[in-house]
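User: I'm putting together a teaching handout on how multi-component assemblies are represented. Below are the sequence lines for each component of a complex, exactly as they appear in our records. Could you produce the 3D structure of the whole assembly as structure tokens, so the students can see both representations side by side? Please keep the chain order the same as the input.
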Amino acid sequence: MATDDLCLLEQIVARHDNDASKLLQILREVQECFGYIAPAVVSSLATTLAIPRARIESVASFYSFLHLTPHGEYRVLFSDNITDRMLGSQDLMAQMCQQLWLQPGKVSEDGLVSIGTTSCTGMCDQGPALLVNGRAITRLTHQRVMEIGQLIRNRTPLADWPADFFRIENNVRRSDLVLGSTLLPGVVLRIAQVLGGQHVIDTVKASGLRGRGGAGFPTGLKWEGCRNAEGAEHYVVCNADEGEPGTFKDRVLLNLQPDLVFEGMTLCALAVGAKKGFLYLRGEYRFLLEPLQAVLLRRRDDNLLGKNILGFHGFDFDIEIHLGAGAYICGEESALIESLEGKRGVPRNRPPFPVTHGYLQQPTAVDNVETFCQAVLALHIGAAKYRAIGTEKSSGTKLISVSGDCPRPGIYEYPFGVSVREVLQDCGAVNTRAVQISGPAGVCLGESEFGRKLGFEDLPTAGAFMVFDDSRDMFEVARNFVHFFAHESCGFCTPCRVGTSILKQTMDKIAAGHGTRYDLIEVENLDRVLQTTSHCGLGRSACNPVLHTLKHFRPAYENKLKSLDFEPAFDLDGALARARQMTGRDDAGAHLKGEGI
Amino acid sequence: MNSSLTFQLDGATIPFADGQTVMQAALAAGHYIPHLCYHPEFKPHGSCKLCTVKVNGRTTASCTMPAEAGLNVESEIEELNALRRTLVQMLFAEGNHFCPSCEKSGNCLLQALGYDLEVHSAGFRHLFPDRPLDASHPDILLDFNRCILCELCVRASGEVDGKNVFALSGRGITKHLIVNAESGLLKDTNIALSDKAMQVCPVGVILKKRVGFSVPIGERRYDQRPISAQALDDAPRQSDAGGSCAACEGTP
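Assistant: Of course. Below is the structure of the complete assembly, with chains in the same order as your input.
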């Protein structure tokens, strides 16, 4: 497959300066060129980079999109968010598996294709979606899936597939401060640079801007902390690892307002005294890499990046884009930094925090894509005006990613303080049973809570807003989220590594009709352990989907329970599944009486 | 040691030196906090979470928590021991542990902790992972079934032996120990019986061949006295010089 120079191993490594801290980027390019990372390639990289080969395997095996064994010329991954499922993704995947004579998760005998699932690809407003060799295809239908199957069978190169398959919509439904901005590149930077870094910090502090990734830390304080922290170098990192299922606003911002993002990063660099910045782009958004690099190039040409920015002597700053490779946990800022350093994306022990000990142990300001955009606009309109938008403790606007059961899914930008009900009205949702705010780790609201408001005072959110109408089984929603956490647990700490898997088993047991009241008590027990002992937020919030849906939709669980207080987890009929598969039978006689048919 | 540098642990006053963690200070002062992945000679990374304590009301791993003057630390309380029991049950459910036939029985930290914390039942459905043995090396057997992913061998081989024989592969529940060889076999690594990595496994993964059961079960270390008493024999425990460890997870 690899013929051109771009794909020569030596070239790939040389492009990354033979630097072991660029290991993830090197592996990602090897994967893209060769379809997998062969053992001989690992050994060769180990020699060139002078690191143990076990470390390379260790890193590669952490990321879902990197493979150490052949995975087919065409690697198809169906996005498996609940919103994809609600749009029929499971049927479509079964259809493709049948068409290509393949089992999910397996590589075809001829090495042509593999089909599997992956966590939410951030296309919830235009799903069902899939990735083929890392490229996103949206708006799947039976027709489209059949066409894809044909293209794969005919070994048609991806470059020759219909361009329409790869078209990504922005679906902006409501614009405000950020999405409506027509600011020209460099305008705010020019003024800020005259007034100085301290002025940037003072203004951002006075504006009340808080981080838009969900946690809501005051941005000005973070930048000030980073500026004041001692270190040989300071770094700016933009967290574009938008992995929270149901969130896709950063994709739209990077597509429509990349200059705001980069300008915000440059302002931050001015404020904290950084010369180097990284944009950590999630692997699912690979298609944005070239357009974003073109923007960076233009900004360098316009002297908005590089040496002596805008002629200001000594103001040097440049931005590098780093691609992720399929690991939700890298959205956690310290895991993201580990990943930037070419390691497994495992959250660090904190303190110390990245603001003092971040990238390469130097002071680092890590902020969300949207936060950087908001910072530019706060500086542009001034702190007082910015503060007047939104609510007292949540100033400014917020981008909401709306998906699920509504006729107008997409991006809605509101001033903070908008109620859940208003958003539901705007997106045209009817007969809404529940709304999941801020992804699986967030909260699930029932109808009685639709009057609650989005903002740090009430419902903090990174922006996901998934709508479920009264036809949906909220137990299945929670089960999907539980599977997500088990799949994305980094495995570092005992409670999360084992606990998320046990929780998944319990939910599957209930789904199979073997659940009892005892299992619900077990869930509460697991929650206590996960919440109090987990290393990071993933483990701490892994039980949330179950607890929240239990609170509002207990009947959805109880309908599935056996009346018994206890039933062993061992599933007798399930144990025959392999025998059924081997004999090709699935009739009533191949099942235990009255079970699982 | 500055006398004003003290914190409270279950009502006792614990002195500490600058740079010590809660765990290090507690052990040095003769107070046991249950632990598995912590080892006095290595930089703590806090993955097993057995050493979880309450510091001023908030739960945290005591092996990575820097000691500070005036902290109020709770450890020996039923609430925390209940959590620890569940964590031990999780580790037993995750791997394939058959104590009666295990060469490490009686010398095993996981087993000893189970006894000490009075873990009386499995608690969870076992996951029964498929983890083949590696018997390729003439002198050393690797039984991955018992691995609890504490990374002590990874740290020992990297930091002390300078060999990086071991590493962790995979993510989440599929995370597992691998060795540094293209064949994936221990015989193709440069491990030696004299390596530190040979001495640190708290369970029965890394075993020296041909010495099995030379001490009968019943006469082994934790058959004599509970682990809570013996862990203190090793005190005072010094914090090591530290430094970053590329192979270790969760350490800055």
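A couple of points students might notice: Chain A has five domains: 5-60, 74-169, 173-387, 397-470, 475-566. Chain A touches chain B through 52 residues (CB under 8 Å).
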